[in-house]
Amino acid sequence: MNEIIKQNGIKFGIILGIAGILAQITTYVLGKNEAVSNLVGILFWVIYLLIRIFQLITTKKQLNGLISFKESFTTLLICVTNGILISQLFTYVFMNHIDPVYGVELNKFMNEKAIQASYEASKLMGVKINSEELKAIANNNNFSPLKILQGTAIAILISSVMNLILAAIFKSKTNNSPFNQ
Known about the structure:
mainly alpha
């Protein structure tokens, strides 16, 4: 693997992880205000996208303006995987060890929102709500190691879709490919 691809993936992954941690800390400091949390979340996703775009521009420049789709995707995948792992590790430690009371409160809040969403969805579809499913949601521990790992895997998969799109946009156009003619 090209060293530039690997180094930029790691460097920008650390930056992405720090951005994720800062978003979590900002939400924590500002309290459980849903509007503020949503604003911080949107701002984080914009920054998250801009960091990856800047990473591709930087990497392409360092590769003398030539970057393949595979190289673009690879450096983005390294970046996103590192960033998400850093952020999720922080989430686990923070919610379970640094401020577990806040973790319990936030978990309860998240479960209440999930129950509300399930209720509204079942109402829209005309389906009777299952009380056992609601109990399972209410007892869900969103910050357990298993849930953190599941969230990590889902975040990497969702980010990979965006990575495919970004890699396609930023790959170098060459005349060697039958698809570019």
